[in-house]
Amino acid sequence: MSGTASLGAIIVDCVDPAALAEFYGKVTGWKTTYQDDDFVYLGDGQSVQLGFQRIAEYRGPGWPDARKHFHLELVVADVESSAKE
């Protein structure tokens, strides 16, 4: 790998991104940095953001449960060269 990746965002799957972002915005004090019908991102001006994405027919987690409920977005300087390695 030509360089290391840095964390850009943590994305949480949900039914209602706006409602979840409102809750976490109040908890963290972070402001909305981007919003549309399916995505809301919160941030505090630092490099990592917290995002919420609408998933059709989303069901909350149970245990045990193999369904994905969030993922990490990584940021690299050169996507093409990093993807090749």
Written description of the protein model:
- It is a single chain.
- This protein is 21% helix and 36% strand.
- It has 85 residues and is an alpha+beta fold.
- Strands 2-3-4-1-5 form a five-stranded mixed beta sheet.
Tell me briefly what this model is.
The protein is 21% helix and 36% strand. By secondary structure, the chain is an alpha+beta fold.
Q: Helical residue percent?
A: 10-25%
Rg computed from alpha carbons, rounded to a whole number of angstroms: 15 Å
Total DSSP helices: 2
Shape: globular
Features:
globular, 36% strand, 5-stranded mixed β-sheet, 21% helix, 85 residues, alpha+beta, 2 helices, single chain
List the helices and strands and how they pair.
Elements (H helix, E strand, L loop, with lengths): L5 E9 L2 H12 L2 E5 L3 E5 L5 E6 L15 E6 L3 H6 L1
Parallel strand pairs: 1-4
Antiparallel strand pairs: 1-5, 2-3, 3-4
